[in-house]
Amino acid sequence: MPGKNLSREEAQQRAGVLAVDGYLVRLDVTSAPDPAAATFRSTTTVTFRCSQPGTGTFLDLLAPAVRSVTLNGRELDPATAYDGARVHIDGLAAENVLTVEADCAYSRTGEGLHRFVDPADGETYLYTHYEPADARRVFANFEQPDLKAPFTFTVTAPAAWDVRSNAVHESVRTEGDARTWEFAPTTPISTYLTAVVAGPYHVVNDHYSRELPDGTALEIPLAALCRQSLAPHFDAEEILGVTKLGLDFFHETFDYPYPFGKYDQAFVPEYNIGAMENPGCVTFKEEFVFRSKVTDAAYESRANVVLHEMAHMWFGDLVTPRWWDDLWLKESFADFMGSYALIGARTRYSSAWVTFANQRKAWAYRQDQFPTTHPITADIRDLEDAKLNFDGITYAKGASVLKQLVAYVGAEAFFEGARRYFKRHAFGNTELADLLGVLEETSGRDLKSWAASWLQTAGVNALTPQVTTDAEGRITELAVLQDGDVLRPHRIAVGLYDRDADGALLCTERIELDVTGARTVVAEAVGRRRPDLVLLNDEDLTYCKIRFDAESLETLRTGLGDIRDELARALAWSAVWNLTRDGLMPARDYVALVLRFAGQEGNIGVLQSLHAQSKTAVDLYAAPEWRAEGARKLADGALHELRAAVPGSDHQLAWARFLARTAGGAEHLGLVRGLLAGSARIDGLEVDQELRWSLWLALAAAGQATDEELAGELASDNTAGGKREYTQCLAARPTPEAKAAAWSAVIDSDELPSALVEANSAGFAIPAQRDLTALYAAPYFKLLERVWAERTIEIAMRIVGGFFPIAQTDEQTLAEADVWLDGHPQAAPALRRLVLERRDDLARALRAQACDRA
Ligand SMILES: [Zn+2]
Prior knowledge:
Elements lengths: L7 H10 E11 L10 E12 L6 E4 L4 E7 L2 E3 L1 H4 L4 E4 L5 E11 L6 E6 L6 E6 L21 E8 L3 E4 L3 E7 L2 E6 L12 E4 L2 E10 L5 E10 L9 H19 L8 E6 L6 E2 L4 E5 L10 H19 L5 E2 L5 H18 L7 H17 L14 H6 L4 H17 L1 H15 L3 E2 L1 H12 L4 H7 L7 E8 L5 E9 L6 E10 L5 E11 L3 E3 L11 E6 L6 E2 L3 H10 L6 H16 L5 H11 L6 H18 L2 H21 L5 H13 L3 H12 L11 H13 L5 H10 L3 H13 L3 H12 L6 H11 L5 H4 L3 H14 L2 H10 L8 H13 L5 H25 L1
Parallel strand pairs: 1-10, 16-17, 17-19, 20-21, 22-28
Antiparallel strand pairs: 1-2, 2-7, 3-6, 4-5, 4-7, 8-9, 9-14, 10-13, 11-14, 12-13, 15-16, 18-19, 22-23, 23-26, 24-25, 24-27
Helix pairs in contact: 3-4, 4-5, 5-6, 5-8, 6-8, 6-13, 8-9, 9-10, 13-15, 14-15, 15-16, 15-17, 16-17, 17-19, 18-19, 19-21, 20-21, 21-23, 22-23, 23-26, 25-26, 25-27, 27-28
Bound molecules: zinc ion.
């Protein structure tokens, strides 16, 4: 399909001659409950002006059939006007009315109008997801962010359904089994931000009101939605509570009244991402509706996402990047605001910056060290580029750099800049220069060189302390060494930590300074007694990898867990993980640190990261000959901590899940089976449905769960979540047949939604089963191009990432990856990028193994 991949040049050309006055979109989804119905009727009438009458242009549309195209009363032949991706029109007038009538397809991949049938009760649910460019799967339009327009949606659906869109509905009309919802016109928004949610959703209504500075009242109807069968688990009050705190906070901080009327938040099935900021109609993955006990880290993460999406109502929806080059403008800002607002809005999640340091930055560091990394301001040539740019740079590094910018210009100047930006560009589109412009106004600082070094270059710096002392142990010089391809200005705090009488490591002095160039001397430290630990980037103000001097590293080996400050401790954990990933600390030493100190880690989110990272350390970074011992140590440690944890605590649950992930020996698996059967108990540990599935996965992977047992568990949890877990358990069984079935289910058929593609690949690719999956490495490289050509990008990305033979950590597999890369210079850049990144993960594992072996 030649026109499917819209380029930036095409978008610029189109925006140069067109101005859109409005869309009228009619959708008829009354066929949705019929599984045999593959399509729904979609009619778009778009009114637009053209500054060069006589020329032609095109609309974007991905539809199985176009029934009619009418331009200014003139019928065009769909057979010639429509090429499968674009509706070509010519002979434009100065003012135009175009109507396109099409049959569009219900989606199973979460792209466009997704259709889901609930296995629990047979009910059908629909929702849309478009970013960056899938509105064209639902209605014909000019699919680019800078052709904003008011949208008026009319949706005809089964009479029993609730239907939501960006705006409130103005009327509802029932005729027989169908009901037609007419929605009010939206304010001008971009195509990718439009939304429809339809189905017998369970709805919880609420209301927010606030007096504005001019004395008028702002009234915002609130609603939270989920599937009916999830309603018993839906804690809407908690979600709506965070919502109201957020609305208070953003109104105070942004000084611009919420511009989209009502605020719906729908939790939807088989969602490919965390959430999407559709104005007035936010969609979330329904895994945020917790069916079983989860740790507080999960609640914090959900609250963060609620606030992230809400920040987008201003940054992204009210003011929108012109093209996907500046995607980061909205994502970095929203990502930063998610954490900032958790604290600023006075939610109960006061450790938001610890989580940010622990998780978002880990994502950014990983992405920024791939050979495919890019400057925060990326060069996005087309939609395929755009699709891959929803990455750790755009979100997490960008947010980290904004945190540094706030330290650099001050919070007051930063938010005053934001306030001016919203007022100046409301309902418009912007580029980086527009944001930098207002920030220069409010801060009085020249941000061009700052932007050049932070936004227009790629890569992460490492900062290392260099300490020299005199005979009495006093500091004669403390210097900060910076390395990296580009040296940047860093506003940092240097924390000096000493042990107190009880052995706790406490900050005894904190020095803030600007680090510039390769070597910066910390003058204030001279004359002070050498501390036990020098922690660079204390408070996590800048974005960098932290290294240590030899004495500080020794302090961490014996006392990392004794650091009292939660954020400082999280930074130390992050730093030793980076050392491990970089092949500077043997994986077994990292594992030893986790086994020694994770039991006393108070922050539940950090603890869960330590679990995941220590598992990766054993699976990929440890020398193969030590793997079995490392795995046994993790499982023993998990069992020990599980028994020691406070009954009923989040920590107890986290250790139970970690035991399930690491269990291998007879003792561990015996306990796992006992917990499932009820014959073993751990005081305070409730073996609820999600934990049961984790335990079954352990048994399945060990070859100790029968087909009947797994089917029996599914029968008692016949839900969407249950189906996913069951699928993963089947794929995890250690037999050639199970691997073949999982492979075939994904590769030989395109029937599976992305959630089940993921479940299959996760079960298939268990690292400890590398002997069984080794024979799939060669076929994997053979089918890459076919998968990329034939599957939608969401599914293709999951296959390319999920089935890469990462567990085959040997030179031969690395060579196979290189042969493919060398032999396919013309493959789609986005496909090459994914393979390059996985290949880099593999090369990194080999380097780490060499370090661990030495
Ligand atoms: Zn976002």
